[in-house]
Structures
1.
Amino acid sequence: MPSSSNANNSSDILSEVRKPALTKCIDDAYSCIHLNEIKTRLDTSIQNREEKKIRIEASNLIHKYVVDKFIDDEIKAAKQEVKYLEDLHGMIKMINKKCNELSK
């Protein structure tokens, strides 16, 4: 019987040694999984930020294009209006000249 008791004690001691080692392995595995999850989230966050930056840059370019086009259209319209007013002024001067000639 004493040898059976020694075997049980050895088994208990071995079990007690294995528990912390197993716990450490499990903790390390969870830490590794947790670190991989954090890395994945960070990678996703970085990718999302880069995509957002690209969308903002594209939006800014579109906005700049729209504003530039609007300004170009306004300048073109203003030039046409100036041309129209110059032509109208020329016609008024001509009519005024004809009226002056007729009134003499």
Note: The CA atoms of residues 59 and 103 lie 64 Å apart.
2.
Amino acid sequence: MHPRQISKWRRHNARYNKRSAALIDRLEPIQMKKVMLTVFKHNHGAYQFFREALQFEIDDTSPSMSGCCVDDCTYEILSRQTKHAEALGHSHGGGGHCGGCCH
């Protein structure tokens, strides 16, 4: 890839990261507590983007957290609390299951 293309790609990526984070923050007025998504394990770019750039975590409902079919599962379920949930102090601390309060 040409250096100009790399620079253009990085600028585009930075704008996309900011837009994605802003979109998640806009969920606050509708009182959504958590955003969840599914990402394929083989899609390293998407996995890294959501985990590092947008600070999503592996959700308690992800197959890798249950211990069954860890090697057979081709995806992870990721989640991130919204600012609304953080403002309410809504946390499950230490990965405890929410019992449906976030869904």
Note: The radius of gyration is 16 Å.
